[in-house]
Amino acid sequence: MDFNKHLDIAPEVAAALAAGKSVVALESTIISHGMPYPKNVDTALRVEQAIRENGAVPATIAVIHGRLKAGLSRDEIEYLGRTGRGVAKASRRDLPALVARGTDGATTVATTMIIAHMAGINIFATGGIGGVHRGAEVTMDISADLEELAQTPVMVVCAGAKSILDLGLTLEYLETKGVPVIGYGTEELPAFYTRRSGFGVDYRVDSPEELAAIFRAQRELNYRGGMLVTNPIPEQYAMDKDVIDAAIEQALAEANAQGIHGKETTPFLLAKVVELTGGESLESNIQLVLNNARVAARTACALCC
Known about the structure:
Blueprint: E1 7-9, H1 11-18, E2 23-26, H2 29-32, H3 39-53, E3 57-64, E4 67-70, H4 74-83, E5 88-90, H5 95-101, E6 105-107, H6 109-119, E7 123-125, H7 136-139, H8 144-151, E8 155-158, H9 167-176, E9 181-184, E10 203-205, H10 208-220, E11 227-230, H11 241-258, H12 265-276, H13 280-304
Parallel strand pairs: 1-4, 2-3, 2-7, 5-6, 7-8, 8-11, 9-10, 9-11
Antiparallel strand pairs: 3-4, 3-6
């Protein structure tokens, strides 16, 4: 474990790590930027509870008053939820400034991986990863999440890349970086709100025990990077592909018309899709995160055996 003077590990998380028990990291961008208050706080607490019910300890990650946090109190989750977008969306490049200035940051996939690894946490559950944005051949808009997966040895359990992205190019980028893309119970990359994308994964795995075995072998081989586990949204919560595709296309058109770019792109698009789907996509988002948390917790338990 790499102790860092800027890192605070919550007592429950520290005790679990010291005892060799299973811990699952969670991001905080979904709290401050992904959902409206109070739904964001309620969802964060439900996800933590889902991890506990499946045998692991949750460690929600954030930056609060310049401190890197591995594990948040209920009051800290409430603070992030109430403050919302007043909390900076923090990727790798933002951490030094947030620490030096003593300010707050809601961690993306990339920064959650960084802080989780710093704390000694191997598995992280999220909704969907960032990736190569549509039109990236012109804009070069590629999420730092992909680069982090290539260099930080954390397993990320998600529902695939967000369907607002170019999924084919995202997979090509991950292949170039040598990141294994595992389908949990599927041979096809899930597309966040939907279970199918038309793109294949590298390997299909059907149990937490096999996921743990592959990840354990990757670490024993001294691989530098992480592993991406893509877990399809439960069938009953999946959205109609035509409906979600139409909403995404309209959201993209509005983002382009308003000149929205960079780190503001994904929150804008996801919020617009929620609006265009009458809130249906928000419920799907919540359910897929809960589903990922359960798989991550069971895998963390298998990894500790």
